[in-house]
Amino acid sequence: SRSVKLAVIAGDGIGPEVVAEALKVLDAVTQSEPVDFDLTHFSLGATRFLDTGDVLTDEDLAAISAHDAILLGAVGGVPGDPRLKDANIERGLLLKLRFSLDHYVNLRPSVLFPGVPSPLGDPGEVDFVVVREGTEGPYVGNGGAIRQGTPQEVANEVSVNTAYGVERVVRYAFETARNRPRKRLTLVHKTNVLVFSGSLWQRLVTEVAVDYPDVAVDYLHVDAATIFLVTNPSRFDVIVTDNLFGDILTDLAAAISGGIGLAASGNINPDGRFPSMFEPVHGSAPDIAGRQLADPTAAILSVALLLDHLGLTDAAARVSAAVTADIVARSVDSNTGSAGSGPRSTSAVGDAIVTRLTGTSA
Ligand code: NAD
Ligand code: IPM
Ligand code: MN
What we know:
Elements: E1 2-11, H1 15-30, E2 35-41, H2 46-52, H3 58-65, E3 69-74, H4 89-100, E4 105-111, E5 127-133, E6 143-146, E7 154-157, H5 163-178, E8 184-189, H6 195-209, E9 216-221, H7 222-231, E10 238-241, H8 243-256, E11 264-268, E12 276-280, H9 297-309, H10 313-329, H11 346-358
Parallel strand pairs: 1-2, 1-3, 3-12, 5-10, 8-9, 8-10
Antiparallel strand pairs: 4-5, 4-11, 6-7, 11-12
């Protein structure tokens, strides 16, 4: 049978707790599939840095690159921890992986499952996907500061947008829209103020649209997009946007569609030259770590995205269905979708989903 080499980065805080459940589900769902997952665990993140001083060595990166896909929990310590000041785990590890492995599509679906409370009174149907650019924008680290620490300090953070980088993610977004029933694409930017990058994004959307006459295109400024995400989320189908806007919009999207505990993502290298990486949208949640309070659903849904990416679409659908059934059955805290607010521990949620998949307890 087919063998898939999976790199697992459990990471920090709740990362290992939610990844343990995700792996239980992966194991259960692939029992009946002609595929074997060959797992390599990488110890990376704040904990590793505090132990060894390493963030991501060249050897780590080379070893991870040799896998078919990556599952990541979350990395990062307690925000503001002085011991981590020079480590910059987020840049040196997470973004380094996304950039080095050319994860130019950061795919973040938002679905409000039936029965799940939303902080919105009557949101209507929520089923959209944010195609967030993953390798450019203000994230590239093209910045610098002078006269640091003085009243004359100047700090620049330049947003880098290349025609090559924008076009490829825009094309992916059109392709995604074409394959969805509503076939609708919204470009979100801030073209009224960010005129240079704005006109590049707008131009490429207009140009690529010619190849997708079946896709309806519109545009929203990012500030207005936050209004509509709250007042009328069902107007959205596919959103394409830059790295930073996409980061912010997808936490909002998670909040309206059941909470951050449910939001999954894929960092995709569509060319298949590098392994794609699947992870919950949430972070390491130091405030609840180590207490079995985290909701593992986002990590489990990230496994569904991983399976889908690998072409194991039936297994992906079975995970999604088991998760949906579990979500419908639970009572969810409308802020976080957190199991912590209900009676179930992190592992109890994982076990319940495994039981739905297999009919037996893990
Ligand atoms: P966070 O997402 O870790 O936590 C925000 C809030 O959501 C917290 O109250 C947390 O308890 C809650 N929460 C998050 N995931 C949850 C879950 N699965 N179940 C229940 N509640 C959950 O964001 P933060 O506090 O801004 O960041 C904490 C650390 O994580 C920082 O070091 C940050 O840089 C890092 N981070 C990492 C990633 C990643 O690895 N992909 C993503 C975001 C943040
Ligand atoms: C996310 C996170 C990361 C991002 C951080 C931790 C670098 O917030 O995955 O959404 O900004 O992309
Ligand atoms: Mn984020």
